[in-house]
Amino acid sequence: MKGNMGKMMKQVQKMQADMAKMQEELADRTMETSAGGGAVKVVANGKKEIKEVIIDPQAVDPEDVEMLQDLIISAVNEVLKKVDDMVAEEMQKISGGMNLPPGLF
């Protein structure tokens, strides 16, 4: 029993180290998405920090600011979803498929 506990603790420590390394790497990885056929592009890193918003000048219509706002919101929400999916995929690799509660590490 004692040997199993020690083995499990080593696995948990390795998982924590792997997760810390992954978090560092995610800060450097980016995801990009666009809305409106490329009128608005948004880039975010793996820490959910928006790094870039690119707006095609032709998408700027003073008569329809709401459309541009909607495109920006859509692109930001989509890129954040992609980041969530990327992080979940990396977590799956580290946890070996164990369903760990969010915020455990």
Structure description:
- This protein has one domain: Ybab, Chain: A, CATH 3.30.1310.
- Strands 1-2-3 form a three-stranded antiparallel sheet.
- It is 55% helix and 17% strand.
- A hairpin with a 4-residue loop joins β2 (40-45) and β3 (50-55).
- The protein is built from two helices and three strands.
- The mean pLDDT is 87.
- With 105 residues, it is of the alpha+beta class.
- The two termini are 25 Å apart.
Question: Helix and strand layout, with pairings?
Answer:
Blueprint: H1 2-28, E1 30-35, E2 40-45, E3 50-55, H2 65-95
Antiparallel strand pairs: 1-2, 2-3
* Annotated CATH topology: Ybab, Chain: A
Into how many domains do the coordinates divide? 1
For the termini, the CA-CA separation is 25 Å
Strands in their spatial order, largest beta sheet: 1-2-3
Q: How many distinct beta strands?
A: 3
Largest sheet: 3 strands, antiparallel
The overall average pLDDT, rounded, is 87
User: Spans with pLDDT under 50 lasting ≥5 residues?
Assistant: none
Global structural class:
alpha+beta
The whole-angstrom Rg is 19 Å
Give the CATH superfamily. Nucleoid-associated protein YbaB-like domain
Please indicate the percent range of residues in DSSP E strands (runs of 2 or more): 15-25%
Q: What is the CATH C-level name?
A: Alpha Beta
Order of helices and strands: HEEEH
Helix content: 55-70%
* Number of helical regions: 2
Molecular shape: rod-shaped
The appropriate CATH architecture is 2-Layer Sandwich
